[in-house]
Structures are given as structure tokens and as C-alpha cells.
Protein: Iron transport lipoprotein
Amino acid sequence: MRKLLPAALALAATLTASGCGATVEPAKSTTSHAVTLTNCGRKVTYDKVPQRVVTNDVGITELMFALGLEDRMAGFAMPDDKGDLNGVPWKDGYNRVKWLSKDQLTKENVLDARADLVFAGWNYGFREDSGFTPDALHKLGIPTYTLTESCRNGRTETSRGIMPPLEALYTDLTNLGKLFGVEKRAATLIAGFRKEVAAVHDKAPAERPKVFLYDSGQDQPFTSGRYAAPEQIISEAGGVNVMHDVADSWTTVGWESVVERDPDIIVICDYGDVSAERKKKFLLSYAPLRNVSAVKHRRIFVLDYVDLVESPRNPSAIARLGAYLRTAQR
Structure:
């Protein structure tokens, strides 16, 4: 989907301490035996270790970087609304790996890159309208791996999410670790993330504030149900996602449901052409929201897009939101 935070240096230090650099654990050679993984509830066998992976979007790309797998990548696609990439934990990865497209991936991108694996997700690259799907790529002889946050759950034709968001993150890191032979690196990263999240969770206020995630939209807001990353970013930080009952990941709801649930705090997802400041001005001036607690008390917090989609930045986002929640209602 969308955008990047200019700096996450605390996370960078955590990852360095976790030993995610390429010198920690050499990846498998191409002669290794086949690997079978469970992806979106299906067993998938990869006959060889991929050498030319192509990724779609920032969170997916940084999962590869966090595991030190830049040398296994042929390129990535993402819009150019990502802020300053020089301050991110994986600057070297962005410098080393080719930026294939400032839009979503296409079959042409993939074929031109001679990709031997496409790592994307539903609405994070894979989409029916353009025919860029795992099935279509398999017909071209190109294996795929689907981001677990985006797995379709069968409740509707397009609803997504099959497990809690952090478990989706840990599942993908574990699977990628197995596929590329960097299991220890993945396990160390996951252990560090679990410890970081637990430390924030333990500080959660006794009275948990209600939080609404605002991505975009004026006629109807685009937000997070219980299967997208904001669900656990909010809950582990010490709040309650007011859209927890929505059995989907990223989806549209009605403003009336926001008003009815009366959130204490609104979290803005910052990305794209509409700045966080413009989104904030809209929320504060939108008449139907005037009596909502978060608007009345101007309790609005901003996180970046990459913080709020499945990515190795999720634990850092939990820590930052947790610090805000602990002070917002004093």
C-alpha cells in the first residue's frame, strides 16, 4: 500500500543488536533441497532457494532487508511518497536493491527483472483487476509468497486476515527464515520483537482508551479491522481498537459507527498526497465528529504508513503509541 517514516533509529539499534546483518548467518545455497511452507493456509513447495526476489511495497521489502536478504533480491516496487529513506534502519538495502517501479508491480516488471519469486500481498501488489495474481504468475513459471496479513479469509470475496497481526508478522519472518536458510536470524529478530512488545504491554494503563485508526477518506473512512497491523499496535500499546469487531484487515466503515463508538484517541496513518496535517484539519472540522471525545480534546497521534502495515517496524510503532497513550489522558 503506501508510505515510510523518516527515522526509526531505536528500531535500527534493536535490529543490529538482534544480529540481522548478513554476516550473522549465511543463506542457503541454490543447491539446497526443496522447502515446503504453509502460506495463507496452503502448503507450498519451493524447489530451490530464490535468488532474484521481487517485492511490492515498503513493509514487504523491509521484511527482506530485516533478514539481511538484500543479495537475494532483484528489485522492489513502491510509490515515491516514502519520505527520506536515508534515515531508515535499512538504508543499505535501499541503496543496494533496484527500485523497479514507483507504482505497483506488473508482469512486465517481474519478467524484466528475471524474478524467481514474487513476494507481495492482496492489495499489496496482487489484484484481480489487472490479472496480477499468484495463479497468473505461476502460469508463467514464477513462484509467489503472499504476505500473511493480506491472506483472504473467505468471509467475503475480498476480506483479509487469518490470524492476529503480530502472529502474521512472526509467521512471515519464520517462513522466510526457513526458505532462505536464515532460521536463527529470524528467530533472534522475533525474540527481540516479542520482548520489545511485552515491555510496552506491561506499562499499559488500567483504563484503556478507545482508539480509532484513520487512514483516509471523507465520505467514508478507510480504517483497520482486527486483522490489520493497527489492531495489535493499538492493543499492545494499551488501547482498544474501536473497530475490533470488523473481521477484515483494511476496510471502509461509516462515520456513524465512529461517532457511536466515541474514540478517545484517533491515530492518523500518514502517507500519500494528503498530508497528516490536512487529515487532522479535516477531522477537527468535520461536523459529524464534533462531539467525539478525541476531536473535542484534540487527541490525535500520527504514525507512518510503514508503521501500520505488516512490517518489522510494528514493534517500534507500539512503543511510540504506548508512550503517547500513557500521557494523553492525564
Summary: Residues 1-23 have pLDDT under 50 and may be disordered. The CA atoms of residues 81 and 272 lie 6 Å apart. Residues 205-328 form a domain with the Rossmann fold fold (CATH 3.40.50.1980).
